[in-house]
Amino acid sequence: MLRIRLPLVRRLGLALLAAASMLGLPGCGYNEFQTLDEQVTAAWAEVLSQYQRRSDLIPNIVATVKGEANFEQETLTRVIEARAKATAIQATPALVNDPAAFAKFQAAQGELSGALSRLLVVTENYPNLKANAAFQDLRVTLEGTENRITVARNKFIAAVQQYNTKVRSVPTNFTAMIFGYKAKPSFTVANEAQISVPPPVSFDKPASR
């Protein structure tokens, strides 16, 4: 039994020795990984905070819009359903280490962004909403939040880019392999463009009251 286990113990010992040796080498990148990983975590927390801020605004926006007679119901329903889908995803710090879960989160938030963009465009066709001070305050707050989301996303993208560059570069890629640092997913350029441009909308004249 001892003869069977001994090679395994030796391999483990050699691996630990190699890891310890790498930690002592200048340029191994271990300490930098700690810093960069923390930066990604902090940037991600800010992204989630701004998305939550937006989500909290939506019920008030929906309630205000519902008060407008003959408002386009399909547009309102899309916002409600998109918010439900986005909030159903458990957004945790661990999400940045799961590409599949991150992609689902990104898609859900992108869908909600598109639904909200359409809603704001449609409201331009309703004079009562345009004259509603409470709705206009909500709209300004929402637009400010969207700007905050863009800033937070860009900071997150930059933090992930720095981290991933370190993971893939020589010689720090060896440190990453030994200590399990893997490349993290990020927001895509296509998604960035999609959420920043409101979709085209064809208006029908609202029914007379």
Q: Kindly identify the CATH topology.
A: de novo design (two linked rop proteins)
Structural class given helices, strands, pairing?
mainly alpha
The CATH homology group name: LemA-like domain
In angstroms, what is the radius of gyration?
24 Å
Tally of alpha and pi helices: 8
Low-confidence sequence ranges: 1-6, 12-17, 20-24, 195-209
Structure described in brief:
The protein has 209 residues and is mostly helical. It has 8 helices and no strands.
List keywords for this structure.
mainly alpha; 8 helices; 209 residues; de novo design (two linked rop proteins)
Layout of helices and strands:
Blueprint: H1 2-24, H2 30-66, H3 73-88, H4 99-123, H5 127-130, H6 133-168, H7 172-179, H8 189-196
Helix pairs in contact: 2-3, 2-6, 3-4, 4-8
Give an account of the 3D structure:
With 209 residues, this protein is an all-alpha fold. It is 75% helix and 0% strand.
